[in-house]
Amino acid sequence: MVKLVLLLLLTGANSKLSVKARDVPDDGGGRTQIIVKLDNSLIGDIMRITRIEDNGVKKDIYVGEVKDTVIRLGDRELSDTMPVRYYVLVNTKTGKFVTQTVSNSVIPKASLFNKKKLFLLLLAIFYIAILLSYMSKAQKGQELYLRPIAGLAEVDNAIGRATEMGRPILYSTGLLGVTDVSTIAALNILAYITKKVAAYETRIIVPVYDPIVYTVAREVVKDAYTAAGRPDLFKSEDVFFLTQRQFAYAAGVSGIMVREKTATNFFMGYFFAESLILAETGAATGAIQIAGTDAISQLPFFVTACDYTLMGEELYAAGAYLAKDPRLTATIKGQDVMKAVLVGFLLLLTIAAFVPSLSAKVDAIKPYVVGK
Amino acid sequence: MFFSRTLPMILVFVMGVIGASLYFIPHPSAQALENTLSQWSIAIGSFAIFLAITSLIRRYITNIKRGKEVVYNLVALISLFGMALLGLINGTGPDSVFQKIFINVQVPLDATMFSLLGFYVTSAAYRAFRARNVEATLLLLTAILVILGISTIGDSQTWLRDLQEWIMNVPNLAQKRGITIGVGLGMIATSVKIILGIERNWMGG
Predict the structure, then answer these.
(1) pLDDT at A10
(2) For an interface test with A, which of B117, B139, B185 has the most A Cβ atoms less than 10 Å from its Cβ?
(3) Which fold has domain A2-102?
(4) Which of B48, B69, B205 has its CB closest to that of A195?
(5) Chosen CATH of A144-324 out of 1.10.260, 3.40.630, 3.30.70, 3.40.50
(6) What is the ipTM of this complex?
């Protein structure tokens, strides 16, 4: 086969058939792309493409009828160190030889950086710079206006209501693990609420779905009681792991709401189908309910059944709002500025997509905008 | 102080930066590192399950001692230990007693809870669609069109099906994407605050 490759290379250019092989850029390696260009006269013939590795190993990767003059194929699961060539043979349907050629040699290398994600990286750096800039302004004492969020303004009232009624508060951190950012946001809010609860000497019940979240939630509640100067009020049995089955969790939390007659329920984090079961049960018990989730499909249920709902990003902003730390609240301002930038960018792209001379360019930059 | 505050913050910073970088590196070694980190997470999770089960047992026992919901707590405790013992003695294979109890008790219970959603959705829809003001009336009309379009009426009335698909694919999808963009920005901001150690409430404040 090596002789054949050499022969074909010496033969020179084939006017009816050409093949180019290239490494697929910005990937994890092991992939090549083959572009075969054929003459019109070859349509209807049978083409066979054979991969030839430098060590002599051969494998047919395509056998089929020629239906187009340009054929693009991908080859995968190749070695990152082994150069490969592609031998293309075209025969008639009766098996009579027509033409053949061989591609350039290519090594399917792994990339260290995905250039398609460069725009996203620059955008992320720009966003982080905005966040840091607002944090710096806030640290210097500059006043920043923040739009009010009704659900957060009511948190203190909801805790106060439970205190006045002498009933406990229920707090759920959702159904995802601690690696999910919404769960971390929920834990941040839990810390603030626990400090308030400690000051009012109200009981807080935290049934947790995930074992790791349980260990973190327990420490958050314990430390918050200590920070509030009331470590004596911390009851370890009130922060507990309930179950890791979705509907068993819904049944368990619903049961707690009914039996303990909780005055206030907080549902913060990521929820699935159980969201409506929890919120409707809480509504039936007459509790004031504040929910916060970034699960878009569950938002309508919370909006309907809860008194206040933090939608999407408001869940992430909640911890900063409640903590009243200028550096944290400054990030909310940064988020709003970045949103305005993105809205402007999307508007520009939308307008450009409607302009015939620009629409092709919008399509060309699309992979860089979405990073794929 | 070092082990409870400084070290976790250093670890969060290092792992946070590594985790963010991995998104931009397609190299197999980066992917291997990501897999290793995921395995660490699973290993930590298996330790946490012991603490979690202990907390559950402690809660049940405390409730029984206080005479609070004794029957419920006893049932939960007996079920917990009973199933664990059955699994250890008899195994958890397809024909085991453990599987039979799981399929004939746990699965129907799950299905029962899930079926409650049908009633809750109806009750929630009734409250959401009450035409109290202009917005609620618009919501009601849109809901009627979507329900009719997605039901069998939509099969014969293609304009209704097209309208329903347009509502779902254009205005509905646009607002979903709007929320998704906000969520993405919120996630990045929260992650930056945690990685830089500005947000520390997850450590208790």
Answers:
(1) 47
(2) B185
(3) Immunoglobulin-like (2.60.40)
(4) B205
(5) 3.40.50
(6) 0.90
